[in-house]
Amino acid sequence: MSAPELSPTRIANTAQRIRRRVLAHTLSNNGGYLSQACSTSEALATLYSGLMRLGPSLAPSLPLPFAHVPGPGRPYFSGALYNGPREDHLDRFIFSPVHYALVLYATLIECGRMGPEALDLFNTDGSTVELIGAEHSPGHEVTAGSLAQALSQAAGIALARKIRRASGRVWVFMSDGEFQEGQTWEAIAAMAFHEIDNLTMVVDCNGQQCDGAMQQVMNIEPLAARITAFGGLAHELDGHDPAALIAAAAQPSQGRPVALLLRTDPCRGIDALRQRAPKLHYVRFKNDAERQPYIERLAQLNEELPS
Amino acid sequence: MIMVPRPHAHNLVAWAKDRPDVVVLSADLTASCEADLFRDAYPDRFFSMGMAEQNMIGVAAGLAREGYTPCVHTFAVFITRRAFDQVAMAIAYPNLRVRLFGFLPGITTPGGVTHQAIDDIALMRAIPNMHIIEVGDATEVESALDVADAIDGPVYLRMLRGEVPRLFPPHHPLQANGVRDLGDGDDITLVSSGICTQEAMAAAKVMRAAGLTVQHLHVSTLKPFPADILCAALRPHRGPVLSIENHSIIGGLGSALAEVMAEAALARPLVRLGLRDTYAHGASTPYLMAKLGIDTAGILAAAGARLGVDFSDANPCCDTDAVPAASFDAKPEAL
Fold first, then answer.
1. Between the CA atoms of B188, B192, B198 and B203, what dihedral angle is there, to the nearest 10 degrees?
2. Which of B42, B47, B55 best tests the A interface by mutation, with the highest count of A CBs <10 A?
3. Domain definitions of chain B by residue range
4. B66 and A CB contact within 8 Å
5. Which chain B residues are Cβ-neighbours of A164 within 8 angstroms?
6. Where would I find the H helices in B219-277?
7. Cβ separation of B55 and A158 shorter than 8 Å?
8. B165 and B137 in contact (C-beta within 8 Å)?
């Protein structure tokens, strides 16, 4: 766990680079899941900077085109190859809210697992760098676009690894909106019952969903108390503090599935977004006036971060 | 007619003996789905998932990704209706080796519409990569796992439980191609599946006794549908074709047959027997089969109407080989 990269200062720098890359892409693309980068850049930077024990990427720097859907006798390219080899002593990463795909792609680039030109393929026809990622998309292991299905699959993977006495953990990146789906609670109850304690949910609690603020759409709080009541172990922390995430992840799991509830700011680092609240799910610019503050923020970030 | 008690319960234990990759998941219907003997024999490979089918499907997918062969047990309705999205996205899209054992097919339960899977084949047929096997007797219950095992992908098995008749000798197990030739003839063709095959066999006997020649084909592989075999069998004849299934006539055997016949330009009239775009209700299997016209008498009535023959004086119950399908389930109330 004490990988040399696990320096909060360095992670914070990587996080800003992720944010900058997503902002630049959103501007050039005139649209994107920008708020998701604001809320999760620190978390994804921390996970990919050494908190997860991953081997080097086994995938090409430039993502392959989409070949075919999986089927009998047809080898299928797994986006998980960007997360390194599948070995019992290493960790596994399961990415659940795949609407955050752009942020994950930016993270893979900033952490040296994918080339920066990969984003040129984003949401282009025939590419695996899809808008809403699937299991062929870089960094993705399961097809999770129908939200809240990945946790159960991760539980099955964790159960198998527990039977095999694998030492690695299974990390499941989630969003708080997925706790509105009943399957999430079925999964937590089942993991608690079967003592699947080698799995950690890292949850972006940004309080946002497609229709707006979760408090206005369908409340899920108090989330920590609910998870605890279902037999999980919940830690709440500042999602923009890499040191806090590293410390919480080091806590023993006590025979229970672990949820790290990252309290995050959906506009963190890009204040211009606050004018759009509570509609932050997808950002599109209607005119140059709307675009201008984001251009200025990108220029600032470019000054702050030496390339 | 030999009745075999709980063939799946015993077969699963024997089949999985030297298969450490085989794990069983159950959603609070373990004895009801005959997974109890497996649970008792191999407790380390049995996982109780509670009444939570969506999660169970996902966990099975995760286990399959790790090299296990999960055998999911619950009632057919709860696999195919309740967890449809999970089956499609977590299991079928990635083509994982998960075996879905769906019990209480069609009207084999007095449990009413909530428990009667009248549309499961239609739902599973629509999912790419999915394979579908429907068993018709104890021999097929005992051999379906071997056929499924050879399939590189997900398999939905439409299963029978309780006292299951042995229609086919054990040395004639289920074949991968999924069609049994139960007799050839020119006057009429019966294409049946599942518990309806027993009824169709009895009806064929009556028709043959009346001097008709009857072709009878039993289909146990609904997907991939054995189109070439069926076309080759159907092409030489001219009479009407009756499909008989314990399922809606939309999306099951009759639909698949209609598609195949149309595409192959097989110009024979097709009559689809089954649930005619309706639900059933809680009642005994023989009562419902008679009401829906998929028992021996119903098949004879439909055939007679097409052939201009009156079979109403025939009494198949006098035939000692014809056991009504009611005897399929020793404890039909075990819900």
1. -20
2. B55
3. 2-166, 179-328
4. yes
5. 66
6. 227-234, 253-263
7. no
8. yes
- How far A57 CA lies from chain B's nearest CA (Å)? 20
Tell me the shortest Cα–Cα distance from B55 to chain A, in angstroms: 5
Name which CATH class applies to A8-59+77-304.
alpha beta
Contacts of B66 in chain A (CB under 8 A): 156-157, 160-161, 164
Tens digit of pLDDT per residue, chain A (307 long)? Answer: 445 558 999 999 999 999 999 999 999 999 999 999 999 999 999 999 999 999 999 999 999 999 999 999 888 899 999 999 999 999 999 999 999 999 999 999 999 999 999 999 999 999 999 999 999 999 999 999 999 999 999 999 999 999 999 999 999 999 999 999 999 999 999 999 999 999 999 999 999 999 999 999 999 999 999 999 999 999 999 999 999 999 999 999 999 999 999 999 999 999 999 999 888 889 999 999 999 999 999 999 999 998 6
Correct CATH for B179-328 of 3.40.50.2300, 2.60.120.380, 3.90.1070.10, 3.40.50.920: 3.40.50.920
Q: Do A155 and B59 touch (CB under 8 A)?
A: yes
Per the CB < 8 Å rule, is A153 touching B129? no
Q: How many CA atoms lie within 13 A of B4 on its CB side?
A: 22
Is the CATH code 3.20.20.150 the one for domain B2-166? no
Residues of B in contact with A160 (CB under 8 A): 62-63, 65-68
Q: Do domains B2-166 and B179-328 have the same CATH topology?
A: yes
Cβ B38 vs Cβ B13: under 8 Å: yes
Domain range summary for chain A, segments of one domain joined by +: 8-59+77-304
